Amino acid sequence: MSDDGIGASITRKEDRRFLVGRGTYTDDINRPHQTYAAFVRSPHAHAGIRGIDTSAAENAPGVLAVLTGKELADDGIGDLICGWLIHSRDGEPMKVGEYAVLAKDTVRFVGHHVAVVVAETLAEARDAAELVEVDYDVRPACVATATATADGQPQVHPEAPNNRAFDWELGDKAATDAAFENAHHVTKIDIVNNRLIPNAMEPRAAIGEYDFGTEDYTLYTTSQNPHVARLVLTAFVGIGAEHNMRVIAPDVGGGFGSKINIYPEETVCLWASKRVSRPVKWTGDRSESFMADTHGRDHVTTAELALDADGKMLGLRVHTYANIGAHLALFASVTPTYLHGTLFSGQYVLPAIYVNLEAVYTHTAPVDAYRGAGRPETSYIVERIAEAAARELGMDPAEFRRRNFIQPDQFPYQTPVALTYDSGDYPTILDRALALSDYASFPQRRAESEAKGKLRGIGLSCYIEACGIAPSAVIGSLGAGVGLWESAKIRFNATGNVLVYTGAHSHGQGHETTFAQVISSHLGIPVDHVEIVHGDTEKTPMGMGTYGSRSLAVGGSAIVKAAEKIVAKGTKIAAHLLEASEADIEFKDGAFTVAGTDRSKTIQEVAFAAYVPHNYPEDLEPGLEESAFYDPGNFTYPAGTHICEVEIDPETGVVEIVNFTAVDDFGTVINPMIVEGQVHGGIAQGVGQAMMENCVYDDDGALITGSYMDYCMPRAQDFPGFKVATTETPCPHNPLGVKGCGEAGAIAAPPAVMNAITDAIGTDMQMPATPLRVWQALQAKAPAMAAE
Amino acid sequence: MYAFDYHKPSSVQEAASLLASKEDATVVAGGQTLIPTLKHRLAQPTDLVDLSGVAELKGVKMDGDTLVIGAMTTHADVAADATVRSAIPALADLADGIGDAQVRNCGTIGGSVSNNDPAADYPAALLALGATVVTTNRSISADDFFTGMFDTALEPGEIVTEIRFPKPARAAYAKFPNPASRYAIVGVMVAESSGQIRVAVTGAGQDGVFRATEIEQALAGTFSADAAKAVKVSPDTMSADIHASADYRAHLVSVMASRAVAACS
Amino acid sequence: MAVSVSLTVNGRSVSREVEPRSLLVEFLREDLGLTGTHVGCDTSQCGACVVHIDGKSVKACTMLAAQADGSSVLTIEGLAPNPEDLHPMQAAFRDNHGLQCGFCTPGMIMSAVDLLQHNADPSEQEVREWLEGNICRCTGYHNIVKAVLDAAGRMRGQQQAAE
Q1: pTM over 0.90
Q2: Interface test with C, best of A11, A17, A19, A551 (most C CBs within 10 A)
Q3: Are C128 and B97 in contact (CB under 8 A)?
Q4: Which residues in chain C are contacts of B40 at CB distance < 8 A?
Q5: Which H or E element spans position A136?
Q6: Residue B9's closest chain C neighbor by CA?
Q7: Each residue of A336-356: b (16+ CB within 10 Å) or e?
Q8: Measured on CA atoms in the order A665, A667, A669, A674, is the torsion positive or negative?
Q9: Residue C48 sits at the chain B interface (C-beta within 8 Å)
Q10: B39 inside 8 A of chain C by CB
Q11: Residue A785 pLDDT greater than 70, yes or no
């Protein structure tokens, strides 16, 4: 039995290159004779383009080309796309506005790409970009989410009257309305899910390279999904063809959803490389990331929960405006719909649910998936309203939740919003979390804080998410433009070591280690003898990439399927070598053994025989290499309870997180160390949303939070250490029993933090709970208290 | 960045003549504000005159009861300096809280003072401690030196050479950082020197650093944290942004002043 | 007008002509090919570019190459004494899972090494405060802090063993 397989907290195989500064990120790559691109971006949120004068820029030192939307059109380059067609509740398909690679006659957000300068050096490109003169006809902008559909608002796209991209619903409206009519109590809350900027630490970058000899394109890019990028760029945008394009996403410095979309910059680099006959490199600076990477969240919601006299949930009614920005980006339509509305049952028996969501265009950067993508917005609503209801009913919030939990014997559990939860044990998770956080003695700690003049609060969040996206037939019926299976290829070398090619992409998740541990357990090959290959369309089989906590549940399952094929073929070879019947061969711990004997061949010996087939079955192909594609049968359903405890200085409004406990059920855990790391990072992003991060545009659509000077990134001193634990109910429908762990923290933490803060201050407030806002909430409450 | 020429003089005199002879020359005194400004193309000097090679501008010494800090002394050096720590510990603490460790290793007191960022820490120290700014031309009292946001009494070509701090009886600095930039939203330096109490506030005012005279008067009556906290500061002259309203800043001035007073004892 | 710079980088003497507006980080990455030093922001806050100049940590994105003339620069590539080895800080980051995507890691490590030069036995709080100038989006800092404390222990152990 290998000791580095499933369940072992081994250190990561990929770490060494990063630790010694030998990672290869896109900006670390330089191609012979490369040129540099600098973009001319709109300083206005909304303007017509009367004309673009490129003459001064063209004559500037080092400039090779100044290109605009006109040249794109001349070359027949199409628009960028949204990959998921949503239908409104009246049956109409969503209204898709223009998503041009370079603006045609209108700019629709600050940072919108208007032109590009390609020059010999980056400094020359930037110098010349300043010389491009754009004649703008500046127009009023539509910025605010909640009022975007109002009459008289500036229109973002002529295709979408009242800026409404779609008006979507899910659930049974009549049954839900009936539940409210019969309710003993109704809890109602207003929620703003603040807009976030993903801020992966590596800014996006691209190098496009056209080879006039082979007539092939190569794109080096910061992508979470290189095959999808190739598909979109060739089949939809119209650059080259799939078999003539290679997309390489080398080491990628974090994604969090912002590197899913196919953007103008990489498209332009590819296209321009043919125009200037040389590689074209672009590396975004952080300011460009702030302006033009896809943003996240930005929902404005009203939610109502109907309850009976015993505190049981009867019905949930939700209306949301979701801001999608100026363009429908690649996943922008599914994020606030099927990744969001389908989870409103939470961990609860909630018989009637109705959700209505209006997606609105505004003159702001496109909004798309950001860690959790739709699910944090759901859990924030469900867990904030659950907490509010418990407080209104005078019940302990933990007890209130326990009373409403789906019980372990109710799985599989069909919710009223389309999903069938496959497995879970929510009461056990809650109990573990309560014990770990010392929930019972909280009143004592609160008293101690009060004695110091501080406010103390505790908040729970019992979240569920749907991961492992997704069964292809199901998502196809819901409007997806692709399937979301995953691929794997296992190649044994003659010397017995192994290469595994995966369609998933690692940008921090640790696939090179976790996937190798799967191989170790399933094939008995030590992790050190396994190399995981990803991120290159020319090396790996077609794959759908990494997002939605899908890589292990879907990509890992594909690896298991391929491993099963390896064992099946290896059994044939071993039977021949051992002069036994195939039926008598058992495979265990890397060895094929004749059952009941000590006669065996190691898998390495079998691999050698496969490549040096001197003594080999007559009817069997040489070689030991197998591929598999895995299409999941269902989503997976990680769930957990996070508990946050805060202490607040009422004088300044400063919130200190004094305790953060997370207990999660991710099914089978392959590498506990990596899983814990994923949870830590998710919590930090969730706490960031709850307490610090906020993307702010002014009324004219100017981005106020355009740098780290104003957009508050969580730092080390903002956190305590986290208490993290797991429970395990294996996923019943994938071969590893895994559920997915990458997004849990970001989904769970915001409601836990806000429930704790509102518990401490005794009044409601919206995220982010900055010192200013907490102080203001306390000030607003103070006169009311005096009047009581 | 726009293109420029770079000079690294080895004496103040050489630096001054470079500044005088170039069309639009700017001093680099650590560069922790200037370089990001240049990167964003918000300034376009023809020449940069880097003072880091001027040895005479670095170092700390006592001149009687006056602490003298050379303009090119880094924040890290001020924070770690035994002479500063012994003479005015509050100043060492303030320096230790500027920016982050890497900024403190490069940024200098002369650069900070000359830039007079309305949210910088040093201006509050100079004003509260009644410091004197010594330049290539003259000595300027802190009261006259800071003339508004990013504005000082410095004439074109004039270089700050040292800052002279009279040793106070007691002093302390309390800072409420901006959660994003970590500059001061409100920073209050309270100092008592020869019987006089001075309270200087950075980060909060629309015109940059200022003296909170109401708090000074209250503390002259009773030097206590409660006395400072009881003062209602007017929000009228306070700046406002997404991180702090004028009301909040005004409130924090009293709170931070009270915390500085508490730290004085 | 180009300026000539001569400096020592990871123990090797280097002389080049550079544009005055060339940043130290650009010089390291583009001229010397030392791409372990990263650029993650343009406001001197993220710390992905931290290197040591004459033993002190600085942000290489906020210094001109010309300003580094005559100095001794240490980058992540030169931190371990031999290419096969890891510095105790690097080893502690590996053993404590103090990195995920790896992009902030070089700057984080160079900053943490400087901390231990000042304070060989920092508390958890001191580590968290020191890292104000280094932003990580992946780890929630939990394991980074653990790694720095672990490295401090290892380095004190080495120190004692040497004495």
Answers
A1: yes
A2: A19
A3: no
A4: 42
A5: strand A133-138
A6: C67
A7: bbbbbbbbbbbbbbbbbbbbb
A8: negative
A9: no
A10: yes
A11: no
